Fold:
Amino acid sequence: MPDKPIQVLFLCTHNSARSILAEALLNHIGRGRFKAYSAGSSPRDKQQPNPLGLQVLQAAGIATEGLRSKSWDEFARTEAPHMDLVITVCDNAAGEVCPYWPGQPATAHWGYPDPSAGEGSDAEKLEAFRQTLHALRQRLELLVNLPPEKLERALLQRAARAMGAKP
Structure:
């Protein structure tokens, strides 16, 4: 196991749903081997994590304290934590020109539909968040169970990109 946790940044457009779910989930299941963060390419003014996402996380027993929506600019600063892996979780953010990330981390794209974009009853919206959390958990379980030798930068990038490939 590395001396320090593998730092992972999840990106989405607004940093209110998918990236927040991924951050909280990886910090929960990462067994200290991973430290997750999330950010958005263009969070709205006074953006907050989606309450339905927080509700789903809490129902799953995953801590939500400290989760907040933020711009990816926070992680492009020289004093920001250096990421080992940056994963986009929405197609919009994947197509945008990202800032330069200090340390040149491995990158991957894992696209998920936006659970907050759907119409329907509160129960249907909540189910969309549950489904997204479940889909994220499947990939993140694979990531946290990679053997230590697969977590070197080049191998990590290859493994993370393979996890995001469409079946």
Notes: The mean pLDDT is 88. The radius of gyration is 15 Å. Strands lie at 6-12, 34-40, 85-88, 106-109. DSSP finds five helices and four strands in the chain.
